[in-house]
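Incident log, structure service

09:12 report received: a user says their structure output differs between two submissions of the same chain.
09:20 pulled the input from the user's history:
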Amino acid sequence: MKFNLENSFTKGDFDKLVKEEMARIIKVTQNELIQVGLQFVRDARSKIPDDNYREAINSLAYAKGETRAQLGSDSPGFNDDTGNLRSSIGFILMYDGELVYQDFQLSSKGTDKSAGLALGTAYAQKLGEDYKTGWAIITVAGMEYASWVEALGYDVITGSTLGAQKILSIAFQNVETAFAA
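09:34 re-ran on a clean worker, output below:
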């Protein structure tokens, strides 16, 4: 008995299959990373100040020679007198040096929230310039005083970043599972 096996596909067919599979991998990875970024910003933007936070913000305003900040007991999140800190929180997702997705939003409260939005977006994009290959998810609080508030022991984005790292490991497992079959 004699068998004659010949391939019935071309290199072009093979290249097309590989390209389609890579596009699928990129799309699934992108979707998982966007979900990680969105969860990060939801967590960071939803923080509610307690009395210690209000006292720290008032001290900051006093140290800067400004009138003491007025935070009502129902004031959500960060010092939303201006809305800048919350508006500066966001993320960008990059792939091979190109912006794929970003999420920055104006705070629902505040008097001058557009400055925070602009600074946060610009800061994330500046950091993104360093990532020319592969994936990069960049999370920021773009106001210069964000680190000062964190140094006082108040969580602006550190806790959300740690949470995002856990979610990121789950996302990578999801990507791995999606392509294991």
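09:41 both user submissions now match this output. Likely a transient worker issue. Closing.
09:42 reviewer note: The first strand starts at residue 89 and ends at 95. The helical segments are 11-45, 51-63, 84-87, 113-128, 146-151, 158-178.
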